[in-house]
Design brief:
The complex is a heterodimer.
Chain A (H helix, E strand, L loop, with lengths): L6 H5 L10 H10 L7 H4 L7 H9 L3 H11 L3 H7 L6 H4 L11 H14 L14 E5 L3 H12 L3 E5 L8 H4 L8 H13 L3 E3 L4 H4 L2 H6 L4 E4 L5 E2 L11 E3 H8 L12 E5 L3 H12 L4 E6 L10 H9 L3 E4 L1 E9 L2 E12 L10 E3 L5 E4 L2 E4 L3 E2 L4 H4 L24 E3 L2 H4 L4 H25 L1
Helix pairs in contact in A: 2-4, 4-5, 4-8, 5-8, 6-8, 9-19, 14-15, 15-16
Chain B lengths: L8 E3 L2 E3 L3 E3 L8 H10 L3 E7 L14 E6 L2 E8 L8 H14 L4 E6 L4 H14 L3 E5 L12 H4 L2 H14 L4 E4 L8 H9 L4 E4 L3 E3 L2 E2 L6 E2 L9 E4 L4 H13 L7 E4 L5 H9 L2 E6 L1 H6 L3 H15 L27 E6 L9 H9 L4 E4 L4 E4 L9 H5 L6 E6 L11
Parallel strand pairs in B: 3-4, 3-16, 4-7, 7-8, 8-9, 9-10, 10-15, 15-16
Antiparallel strand pairs in B: 1-2, 5-6, 6-14, 11-14, 12-13, 17-20, 18-19
Classes of the chains: A alpha/beta, B alpha/beta.
Chain lengths: 447, 413
């Protein structure tokens, strides 16, 4: 766990994860046990292979390490900043049996930046002679799939509704967690592979999968992510209620918008996005920031690093509680009433399993309520992907190879998982690219 | 009644309160430094080597040092291009006299380096007159820019014998001949010194070495305005080589002279290693350059505790105890063989032993990928114990003896 988080820096939009000095890089790489069949590598959903790149660092092969990261994970720079390493690679680190795990994300960031500073050669450009693939959504899953397909010499077009690529990494992760330059560098690598990104193209513009196929695409990968926030019925109809997507999008780079100074903010939820919203609100000068979650402190799905930061930023945790009543004037919520909760059955964190604890009612004054209780895919997916099997909450159903029920149509990332980490989405994109390649190979063989 | 000091030692008829001395180097440049070393607890000082201005033009290049680093470990060795003292002989003699007067119970050793017979004799007389208790003959400085001095003398048996004799004739003080390690076998040179009348041998001086190269300019380091040189290398990295030479000297029946050990000593354990290999006296520089005079406290306390814990009353009971076990490899008893034993409870599953055994030994370690544990294939293990040495858990891998009469052992069959 990183302990060098400085709240002042967060308020100044400096990054929460400090870079490692060269000395620290050498120390960390020497501390690494260079395991056989490294468990850290097995712990990375994107297959970034830290076991390999740390070995390369250990033997001063810094450019080689940068190549490993870039080839394995097109968002290697982004992941170095935002990966919940304590739950993934570092969780598996063998040296934990003896001492603190290796600072894997610190080493990753160092070599990614080293590669840039010392002009690592551009990536191989796709010859584009293996077929045409359309990818819908230039977020982590889409970009990762595009990179892998370009490596396999496909002609890849990414359709993106926003003006810039990056998806959640660009529009919703606060700048104090991820510097925009890092994301741009990763995208530059992707573009250097000859991948095209068609900006400002939403699903309505694209039409349907059939339209795409008619335009000559051999396969489609849907990675549109999640864009429709869940809402609590209790909070419907009030003016000063927002969702984390709108809130984070506004506040990501600019803590003055929306105006939060000296306001009381309540965030509902306990995941990474809820913590991001809470820390941002606090950095923006909110008077009191409450984080209300059904999960108790140790059950919060957010990373420990984010929880620590929120505590340093004076976020008030109402962990293990729920909102029961709203007091409002003219559609403006002025006060929330809540109660502490417990679980009926252990290890089941679903709202239906919560049990109120009598005599623990509390009431807080609020100026703004931010809901961060999850998201589901855009409804427009059903029209675009007509014929593709879709679950109740709007997520796309795929096999373990990310193929849908329609031939040539694949999907991955949050639109399938319903919400996971960026590194997971990168992994999905890579695996989907392999499946697309296998599918098209078979098709070619049958022709 | 307090116990007698177990660390006191007699070396060449001189009593040292403890065997720990500064070796002739930048750590004993002048009286003020040496006084602080005495105050810190060092039993003796070998003063920075004296020379006569008329004979040597002492060259002091800059930068003068370069470190040998290993990974994140800094200065596991140190390369020094410094030569003998560049101070006027008069000042140094005044310092020596002041030190002996101020610290009569501490041992003062004057290191000297002459160019010809007259120089050696004159420097020895001057040292005696200044109050030195012993004289050390520097036959071994690897960077003296002179064809007839420094380690080139130390490689010339005849010169060593002649200069030693000249000094012995010029002074009544006990004489220590300091050996260069830049030679295949040190014993013949030590014997030449003995023939010249030397009372003791000190070893090793620094090893001629190159520690690093600048990858932009391709200049070896230290980069002395575009040039460099193979010069004296010291520190922990040279200790194994020094231990070999010290045991060679001690085990030479023909030589049979006391040895003052030098080479990578930082701790009481390092010192004890040299005592066990036959040294009577210990000299230190690089560790002081790195950590200061204060480290002698830990040498004194650590070695005293070690001896008290084992009821060892005198260093004489330790000296040479390990040297007796140094034999020619042909004399090894190979009927007794061992195999590695892994403690599965302590194994953290990193697989370093597996990789080392697979690629660097006998493919006797099996890796269970599912459990992330290793197992020894006793039919393949030759008992080299590379696995034990690379294991990050210090007490995870041990070994057991196998009965070679009943068990098939890979090393024999």
């Amino acid at each position: 766990m990183k302990t060098n988080i400085d709240p002042v820096k967060i308020s100044e939009f400096k990054c929460m994860r400090e870079p490692l000095s060269l000395e620290a890089v050498i120390r960390e790489s020497n501390r690494c046990l260079l395991c056989h069949e490294a468990p850290c590598s097995a712990g990375c959903p994107a297959g970034t292979d830290p076991g390999r790149f740390i070995r390369q660092i250990r033997f001063y092969n810094y450019k080689g390490a940068a190549r490993t990261i870039r080839n394995n994970n097109i968002l290697g720079g982004v992941c170095a900043f935002i990966c919940p390493v304590e739950k993934l690679c570092e969780k598996e680190c063998s040296i934990k049996a003896l001492e603190d795990p290796i600072n894997i994300n610190g080493l990753q960031r160092f070599v990614v930046e080293y590669g840039k500073a010392f002009s690592l050669e551009p990536m191989k450009v796709s010859s584009k002679n293996m077929g045409h693939v359309a990818i819908i959504g230039a977020g982590p899953a889409g970009m990762s799939c595009a990179s892998s397909l370009a490596t396999l010499d496909y002609d890849v077009t990414l359709y993106e509704q926003e003006q810039q690529a990056g998806g959640i990494a660009r529009y919703y992760i606060p700048a104090f967690r991820l510097p925009e330059e890092t994301l741009n560098d990763d995208i530059t690598n992707l573009l250097s592979q000859g991948v095209k990104i068609s900006h400002g193209k939403n699903l309505t513009y694209i039409g349907t999968i059939t339209d795409l196929m008619k335009r000559g695409f051999d396969a489609v990968f849907i990675s549109t992510g999640l864009s429709k926030p869940f809402r609590l019925e209790l909070l419907e109809g009030y003016i000063n209620v927002t969702d984390y997507l709108s809130f984070l999008r506004n506040i990501r780079h600019d803590f003055t918008a929306p105006e939060l100074k000296n306001k009381n903010i309540a965030i509902i939820g306990g995941g990474s996005v809820a913590l991001d919203a809470a820390v941002s609100a606090s950095a923006a000068g909110a008077s009191r920031v409450y984080l209300i979650s059904l999960e108790h402190l140790k059950e919060l799905p957010a990373d420990q690093e984010e929880i620590n930061l929120a505590r340093l930023m004076n976020v008030i945790f109402k962990a293990g509680s729920q909102i029961t009543r709203v007091v409002a004037e003219d559609k403006q919520i002025t006060r929330l009433t809540g109660i502490e909760t417990d679980w009926k059955e252990p290890d089941n964190y679903h709202p239906s399993n919560a049990r109120q604890i009598q005599g623990t009612e509390f009431s807080i004054n609020v100026d703004l309520v931010v809901q961060a209780i999850g998201t589901c895919p855009d409804d427009k997916i059903t029209r675009f992907a007509r014929g593709v099997e879709i679950m109740g909450k709007g997520t796309i159903v795929t096999g373990s190879d990310f193929s849908t029920n329609l031939p040539g149509v694949f999907a991955g990332g949050d639109v399938v998982s319903g919400g996971a980490t960026i590194v997971q989405a990168v992994g999905d994109g890579k695996k989907a690219a392999e499946s697309i390649h296998n599918y098209l190979n078979k098709r070619r063989a049958n022709q | 009644m307090s116990k007698p000091n177990p660390l006191q030692i007699n070396f060449c008829g001189v009593r040292f309160e403890n065997p720990f001395c500064l070796s002739s180097s930048p750590v004993g440049n002048h009286a003020e430094m040496c006084a602080r070393a005495y105050d810190a607890g060092w039993g003796g000082v070998v003063y920075k080597t004296l020379g006569l201005e008329k004979s040597f033009r002492v060259v002091m290049p800059s930068p003068r040092l370069n470190a040998y680093n290993y990974g994140d470990k800094r200065v596991i060795g140190l390369q020094n291009t410094e030569q003998i003292t560049d101070r006027p002989i008069r000042d140094n003699l005044r310092d020596l006299a002041w030190l002996k007067k101020s610290y009569p119970n501490k041992v003062l050793i004057s290191s000297i380096m002459g160019y010809d017979d007259e120089d050696w004799a004159e420097l020895a007389k001057m040292s005696e007159d200044a109050g030195a208790d012993l004289v050390e003959l520097n036959f071994s400085c690897p960077q003296m820019a002179h064809k007839h001095a420094g380690h080139r003398v130390g490689q010339d048996f005849h010169a060593v014998e002649m200069f030693t004799r000249v000094v012995k004739n010029a002074t009544r003080l006990p004489v220590i001949a300091k050996m260069t390690p830049n030679i295949t076998d040190m014993v013949p040179v030590a014997l030449a010194a003995k023939d010249g009348g030397a009372d003791a041998i000190s070893a090793i001086n620094t090893i001629k070495a190159i520690t690093n190269i600048d990858l932009d300019s391709f200049t070896p380091m230290p980069d002395i305005h575009g040039n460099s040189a193979a010069t004296g290398f010291s520190g922990p990295a040279v200790k194994p080589i020094a231990m070999r030479f010290v045991s060679d000297l001690y085990n030479s029946k023909q030589l049979n002279l006391p040895v003052s050990a030098i080479g990578g000593i930082e701790t009481w354990i390092d010192a004890l290693h040299f005592l066990l290999l036959g040294a009577t006296n210990i000299q230190v520089t690089t560790a002081i350059m790195r950590y200061g005079y204060r480290i002698v406290e830990d040498m004194i306390e650590g070695l005293t505790d070690f001896m008290n814990d084992r009821n060892i009353g005198s260093l004489d009971e330790l000296i040479g105890q390990a040297a007796r076990m140094i034999v020619d490899p042909s004399e090894f008893d190979t009927r007794h063989q061992v195999v590695a034993v892994v403690d599965p409870e302590k194994c953290i599953g990193c697989g370093q032993c597996f990789i080392s055994c697979r690629d660097g030994a006998n493919q006797a370690m099996k890796f269970n990928a599912a459990k992330r544990k290793v197992e020894v294939d006793e039919t393949r293990c030759v008992g080299c114990l590379l696995c034990k040495h690379v294991c990050p858990v210090w007490d995870c891998i041990s070994h057991k003896e196998v009965d070679t009469l009943t068990t098939r052992h890979a090393a024999i069959f």
